Q: What sequence folds into this?
């Protein structure tokens, strides 16, 4: 009976996940271990077996070792979420915590700094050594520090400033766009400087200070 209970819990967990979510063995195993007070190794074995059975039945689809995605049956056949979308989630969030963020030309385009549309999506992630499934258009980069819920916005912003001089930027006022983004993300100036000093080279400090002055001037001129 216990084994059936474990399987039902795993099935329910998968079904309740959003369609675009990455179904990761590690995440579900940790939830199972907590709920039933199981050793993690046992929970992971049970999860692996259950997810494989679900994949064999066509209920989910295996993308790579330990990563699955949802499947929908339509009149046109089997449909799955975008592989890029699913993989991005595995690289940016783990067990509800941030482990990565968008970066590079993809982010510059998203913020309106460039009209250049890159072929690949760059993700800076703690899982920079992960093997990606075939067919995805994602490149991974190693972060300057371990990514957390608290620091990812600061690391992402400093990365942008570091890459700006060598990036293809065609926005008329890129500094203004960066100022607006910093305000939207509610970045703290002192934390930004402290993070840069701790994890980056000293040459990034002056651009950060200049940008913070822009933010201050914009606020005081209102």
A:
């Amino acid at each position: 009976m216990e084994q059936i209970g474990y399987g039902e819990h795993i099935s329910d967990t998968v079904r309740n996940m959003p369609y675009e979510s990455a179904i990761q063995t590690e995440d579900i195993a940790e939830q199972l271990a907590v709920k039933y007070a199981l050793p993690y190794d046992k929970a992971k074995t049970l999860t692996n077996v259950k997810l494989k059975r679900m994949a064999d039945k066509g209920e989910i689809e295996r993308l790579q070792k330990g990563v699955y995605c949802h499947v929908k049956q339509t009149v046109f056949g089997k449909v799955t979420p975008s592989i890029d979308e699913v993989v991005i989630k595995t690289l940016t969030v783990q067990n509800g915590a941030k482990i990565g963020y968008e970066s590079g030309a993809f982010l510059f385009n998203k913020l309106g700094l460039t009209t250049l549309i890159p072929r690949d999506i760059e993700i800076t992630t703690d899982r920079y050594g992960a093997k990606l499934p075939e067919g995805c258009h994602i490149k991974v980069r190693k972060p300057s520090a371990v990514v957390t819920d608290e620091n990812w916005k600061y690391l992402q912003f400093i990365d942008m400033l570091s890459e700006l001089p060598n990036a293809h930027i065609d926005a008329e006022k890129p500094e203004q766009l960066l100022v607006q983004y910093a305000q939207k993300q509610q970045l703290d100036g002192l934390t930004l400087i402290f993070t840069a000093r701790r994890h980056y080279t000293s040459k990034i400090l002056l651009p950060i200070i200049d940008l913070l002055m822009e933010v201050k001037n914009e606020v005081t001129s209102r």
Q: What stands out?
A: The chain has a mean pLDDT of 90.
